[in-house]
Each structure stands twice: as structure tokens, then as C-alpha cells.
Amino acid sequence: MINAAIAGATGYTGIQLINLLKHHPHVRINALTANSNAGEGFSKVFPSHLKIEDRICDATELERLSKTNDVIFLALPHGIASKTVTEEVLSNTKIIDLGADFRLKNISEYEEWYKTEHFGKSLLPQAVYGLSEIYREQVKTARLVANPGCYTTASILSLYPAVKYGLIDPTSIIIDAKSGVSGAGRGLSLGNHFCEANESIKAYGVTTHRHTPEIEQELSFANGSPIHVTFTPHLIPMQRGILSVCYASLKKSVSKKEIEEAYVDMYGKEPFIRIRRSDDLPQTNYVKGSNYFDVTPIVDKRTDRLIAIGALDNLMKGAASQAVQNMNIMFGYKESMGIDDCPLYL
User: Fold this and answer.
1) For the segment 311-330, what is each residue's pLDDT rounded down to a tens digit?
2) How many CA atoms lie within 13 A of 37 on its CB side?
3) Predicted TM-score of the model (pTM)
4) Which of 57, 150, 246, 342 is the catalytic position?
């Protein structure tokens, strides 16, 4: 058994982590922390967990936690991990950071997009981007994993084979993505109130969303040279899920068969990626409550464009279950352990 701590346990991602780890055969939840709820019982914050998880939440003291836990999940806002994750902490434990602090390799990009100083520059070279379908071998030996964002996971995985195999014009990428309101977290916000969000859809963060540089970084690595994308996120009135519809111009003479073969070659053996037929397109209902990512690449012959459609649960493959998938790889467990439940559908 390994001991695990969850910092930021009273957020939506935190409760998903608790639910997953409680059913993991090799994990003992050893500590829950939440600065905003320190001293409160977890089941008081989430009454659904009465007699399931009643322990008192502590304040987050990473150095102390590192001495009694084999892995710490950081489900915290950006700007905290870079201040508190140190070489001393990493000498004691493994860190899976579900925030943004160690995702971007370029410090100036991080500070420009997140409007805060980065305090962990010396640790960035050893931080592994936790998209296991791409970086599985690096995750195996990592001490610090930067769990990808939800929009980024959906968008990168939707486009990665086409970029990697040089099948599309990398200057032509447009990503139109839609998310349920849980993506904004539990904090109070007028735009997330029922009366504001219900029966409405809106674009937000147009040209400014912080997942943009993360998408560009990973697709640039796949391309071998810099890529800039047009990324527009939308808020839709549902609780959870992301649908990412990605457009790009095909390179001349690229066929439907080449596109399909590229996706099968990259994803055909992946346990949590399902390539769907064009007559059965990805839907958020198909992946809700699961670690599955569904994708369909479509060739529009009339316009010579690729339309890649991907769907995931933003709280699961976009956050908590992806973090557990990374933990499994880091500790040598079967990758699907504890996260192989069927989608909820309803």
C-alpha cells in the first residue's frame, strides 16, 4: 500500500480524487487538506460523504505532508505549487500537480499568461507533462508530474496524430471547445449561477484563455517547430464534460486512409482512447464519469480539411482520473487500476 495525500480536497477535482482512491486496491488516503475548510470535517463540506469520508481537513503544509506520504496530489489554484514544491519535498515524495505551475516549459510564457511570478524555475526541467499517451516512459521515472488541463487534453489528443505525422497545415488549426460549468471550480461566480448559465451558451477567454499556450507547446513538440492555434472555449449549461471540435487544412494529396491509419497507429492500443466511427461521433454522455477519451477524425473532401472531434469528462480524464493514471504508471501498477469504471451515461 502507498500513502496518498490530497491537497485541495474540497474542490470538485478533490472529491473526484477521493472517490477514485478509495476504490484503489493499493492506495491508502492518509491526509486531506483544504486551507479554506481547515478544521472542518470533509462530510460537512460534502454531506454526500457522511460515513464515507468524515476525517477533518488540515491546512496544507507540503513539507510536513511529504514526510508521511508516498504521493501528494495538488488540486490547487495556479501560483501555489511553484512556491511550495521544493527539492526537499521531492526527495521525500512524488508530486502530481493538477494545477498549471509546471505544465509550461517557458517561464516567460507562464508569467505572461498567468500574471504571476514562477518560483520553481529550477524544478521545471524535471517536471514531466502527464499526458501518458504521449509521455508514458517519462512518467514512469518522474518525481514531479504536471497533470494536463482539461481543454488541453481534449484538444491535444484530438490533433496529435495529424500533427505528428505531418498530415495537416500546422498554421491552419482552429479549436472550438465547449465545457460544462464544473470546469470553473466551486468558487462563486455570477456567470456560473443557474439563472446566468441555463438556457444559454457563451464564448469566453477569446484569444486569452490560459490553456492556449499549453496546447501550442505540445503540438509544437509534435510538429518539431512552433505552432500557433486559434482556440475559443465556450461555457454550456451542463455539469461536466468537454467537446473539442478541431479544424485544420489537409496537406495536398493526404487521403482519408492516411488520416485513419495515423490515429489507429497512435491510439489503437491505448486503453483509454476510443476511436469512433464517423456515424457515431463522440458525445460527452459517452465518457461521463470515466477516464475515456473518444475521438473521431473526419476528412471533409469538399474543403480539404480535417475535422477532429474529441470528448472527455473534464473532472476525470481532464483532471482526477488522469492524475490517478499517472500515479499508476509512476508506481508500476496496472495503468487502468482504480479508473476502469464504465461511463455513467445517465
Assistant:
1) 999 999 999 999 999 999 99
2) 21
3) 0.95
4) 150
